[in-house]
Amino acid sequence: MHDQAKPLLKRPVHSVGWGIRIIERLGLMVILAATLVAMVAEVQHMFGKGKVDIVDLLLLFMYLEMVALVGMYWRKGKMSVRMPLYIAMVGVARHMMTDTSLTAPLSLLAGAGAILILAIAVLVVRFGHSRFPYGPDEEL
Predict the structure, then answer these.
(1) Coil vs helix vs strand at 105
(2) How far apart are CA 74 and CA 131, in angstroms?
(3) Reported pTM
(4) How do the domains of the chain map onto residue ranges?
(5) Could you give the CA distance from residue 75 to residue 78 in angstroms, rounded to a whole number?
């Protein structure tokens, strides 16, 4: 029996999946646009102050990783768990460099510990992927 001949309630719910896909695409466009606006604002800020610091470069790197993350999700419909972990590591490092209240040794150790935990999480994910690979329908 062809889809057109089936009663409405017995048809596959392709329109719901299609609608969700449209919402995902719109959300990705909003995230991409916001990231690009923030990136341009940061470049303008660097030009305004007349110099580029390492924290500025780290922020631009984080924006670039966000663009790559959006691109991956757009192409594959899936997101690697590792990319947000990498972004988080750069974010913590940047925060440690910019926040003057983190000069206490314990604060610096806490930040370094957070980066270490994120790095271990990346290793665990990589190990899990190599030890228990995805099936053909689950491939990232």
Answers:
(1) helix
(2) 27
(3) 0.72
(4) 12-131
(5) 8
